[in-house]
Amino acid sequence: MGQILKILILCTGNSCRSQMAGGVLKSFDSRIEVLSAGSEPTEKVHPLAVEVMKEIGINIKSGNEPKNVSEFLDQDFDMVVTVCDNAKENCSFFSGKVKKRFHIGFEDPANFQGNYEEKLNKFRVIRDEIKKKFYELYKNEIIKKL
Q1: Is-catalytic flag, 16?
Q2: Which residues contact 112 (CB under 8 A, 6 or more apart)?
């Protein structure tokens, strides 16, 4: 008991899905250290991702900047989770020490075309999918290791 699990969440831009997944996972249990990165990181966390996470009481803006997966290659992780198909293909080269790998794919809400309200709703849908699927991962895989 009291063990910290170290988890890395990967996607392409590290601006939406991996940031939301990291925020959600951290909210489940303080014994989880969650980092996120991308194979082609953008310059900043997507403002709509920040907004929809704020709606459920999770701050993903403070101190979060998209990071390149190469920053973590020398670290050991209990788990690496890819959250988009591009990351599954591009990040399979992740050569750091990993005990367990998972892929839970999500559509990229940043690619959705529409007006502001439609885009915001798309981000909410993806956020809710992430919350649901990452809770299943937490309940079925992570909690056993804590």
Answers
A1: no
A2: 118, 119, 122
